[in-house]
Design a protein that fits this description.
- This protein has about 120 residues and is an alpha+beta fold.
- Helix content is about 30%, strand content about 10%.
- It has three helices and five strands.
- The strands form two sheets. The protein has a three-stranded antiparallel beta sheet, with no helix packed on it. Strands 4-5 form a two-stranded antiparallel ribbon.
- The longest helix is centred in the middle third of the chain and has 15 residues.
- It is globular and about 40 Å long.
- The relative contact order is 0.23.
Amino acid sequence: MAEVSVGVLGPMTATVAGRPVTLGGPRQRAVLAVLVAARGSAVSEDRILHEVWGPDAAVSTGTLHAYVSTLRKALERERPAKVLIRARVRRGSGSPRRGRPPRNAGTDSSAPRSTG
C-alpha cells in the first residue's frame, strides 16, 4: 500500500505516494478530519454525523457512506475492494507504528492517519 500523508495544519491536504490528492469539498474534508483526529480508533456513524453536520441535521447515513467511499477511492487507489486495511501510523518525526484494523465494521474508520 502506498504511503498516505494527511496535513491538517493550514489548508487540509493529502498525498498518496508523494502525489497530491483532491479531497473534495468542505464537508468531505470535515469527515476526513474527524477520522484523522480519532488517531486510529473506531468512529461511529453517529459521531461523524454529529461532528460534521451538527446534532440537529437531517442527514442520511447514505450521504456519509458516499463521502467515505469517495475518500477511500482517492486515498487508497491501489487497494482492491473489500480488502482489510492495515495502516502505518506516524507521529512527529518518530518511526512508523503498525495501526490496527477497524473494530467497527459498520463505519469505515480506517482513513489515513495524520503524519504531523
